[in-house]
Amino acid sequence: MGVPEGETKPEEQRLGPVLRRRDQVQPGTTDQRLLDTEGDSEWVHTDPWRVMRIQSEFVEGFGALAELPSAISVFGSARTRPDSPEYEAGVRIGRALVEAGFAVITGGGPGAMEAANKGAREARGVSVGLGIELPFEQGLNPHVDIGVNFRYFFVRKTMFVKYAQGFVVLPGGLGTLDELFEALTLVQTRKVTRFPIVLFGTEYWKGLVDWLRDSVVAGGKASEHDLLLFHVTDDVEEAVTLVTKEVGR
C-alpha cells in the first residue's frame, strides 16, 4: 500500500518502536507486509526473524539445563587423539569432577570434550554436551547423556557460564581460547563471581601465561591482579581441589 493519490509521502513514520524519517520512510505498513500473499520467502532469513530463533535457543537451553546439579565446564581441543596423554587426562578429570559432586559440561564434540564426557559417564555422573552448528559436521559424542545443539555461539557460551560453577581448560585451539578469554573477561569485569578457572597442562599454557605477564601486564593493558584470575596445574586432584575450594564445596 503506497501513499493515497493526492497525498504526499509522510516525513515521519513510526513502525512499533522504530522511528523512520525523510528518505527512510517505508511504503505500506507492517501488517500489510505480513498479510500480503505475494512476495518471496527471504523474510525468514532477516534479522528480526533471527531474533525469534535466538530466543528459542535460549528457551531450549534454559529448559534442558535448569535442573542440573552443580556443574563444571571442561574445554579442550576436538583434535585431541584418543591415544594421547591429554585424552587420558580429560577422562580422569571428568571422572574426578563427578566424584567431587559435579556434573560435567563440554562442547559435546570429539577429542578432549569426548574424554571429559567419557570420564563423567563412567563415574555414573551427569554428562552434558552443548554442540554447535558448524560447516563440517561433528555431532555429539556417544558419552553425552544430555545434549543440546545450538546455531549461535553466543547462546551456547551463555549456557557454559550460566550452568557451571567453574571452568577446567585442557589444551585446545582457537575455540578453546575464545571460551577461556570470555570467562576471564567475565570474572575480571565482575559479571560473574566466585568462578574458578583452571588451565590444565603447564607446558602447553606456559607461553600464553608468559605473554600475559611480560606483554599484556607489563605494557599496562591489564593489572598484575588479573594473573590471579586463573590457576595452572598438571595435577588432576589439584585441579578439582581448586574448583572445589573456590565454589565453597
UniProtKB/TrEMBL annotation:
EC numbers on record: 3.2.2.n1
Hydrolase listed as a keyword: yes
Region entry Disordered, spans: 1-35
InterPro entries reported for this sequence: LOG, LOG_fam, LOG_family_nucleotidases
Catalytic activity: N(6)-(dimethylallyl)adenosine 5'-phosphate + H2O = N(6)-dimethylallyladenine + D-ribose 5-phosphate; 9-ribosyl-trans-zeatin 5'-phosphate + H2O = trans-zeatin + D-ribose 5-phosphate
Organism: Streptomyces litmocidini
Composition skew (Basic and acidic residues), residue ranges: 1-24
Protein name: Cytokinin riboside 5'-monophosphate phosphoribohydrolase
Family listed: Belongs to the LOG family.
One Pfam match: Lysine_decarbox
Enzyme class, broadest EC rank: hydrolase
Keyword Hydrolase: yes
Keyword terms of this UniProt record: Cytokinin biosynthesis, Hydrolase
